[in-house]
Amino acid sequence: MDLTHAAKPRNILYFIFHSLPLALFAYVAYLAQPGSSVFSWHPPMMTLAFAVLMMEAICIFTHDLGLLPEKAKGWKVTAHWFLQSLGLFAAGFGFIAVYYNKDLFSKPHFVSWHAWIGLATIGMTILQVGMGLGTKHAYWYRYFIKPVRIKNSHLALGIVTLFLSCSSLILGSASAWFQRESNASFAYVFMAVCILVHWLAALNTLSTHKKRLLGKAGED
Known about the structure:
This protein has 220 residues and is an all-alpha fold. The chain has eight helices and no strands. It has helices spanning 3-32, 42-58, 73-104, 113-136, 147-173, 176-181, 186-208, 210-213. The radius of gyration is 19 Å and the shape is globular. The two termini are 30 Å apart.
């Protein structure tokens, strides 16, 4: 088998996965012009958090999409935490911006599916941080619960968080603000890219950890 040709599809997917989310973030930032208003921080920060930083954090351990494929697991764990922390900070900043903006104009909070799914995504992300701590120190309470169960729970919740973040971004592209500021047809491009990138992340994550999920030996 020609390894050069076999690597080409993998390289293409790698390029797509790492470049398209950055393009989405750049486009949303261009539309919002961060700093022009309180609300202007919300769309780009949420896109940065859930389409870029957390996506990279989740896939840091995957074989085909990770940023550090040759590094030891310790490096990947550190990078995972760093990217997740940055993503949670960005999401928190974006949430505060839109919440404060609603208060400024005396508008009601959480009156759309986008708002509720977005809130659920942030809540799940915070829960995942706690699960991540549990996973990191699973050895401490190994006599009460098997470490592999904690790791699998963390992984499963991560997939759920991926689904929620994808849904939140798609609903955001259907919002009145996005439809007003953007070319209407680009909303469909935005949705397609979100689905593609999140699907790649979920598929590669499950593929990388399939041995552990199936209860086979050889995966920590």
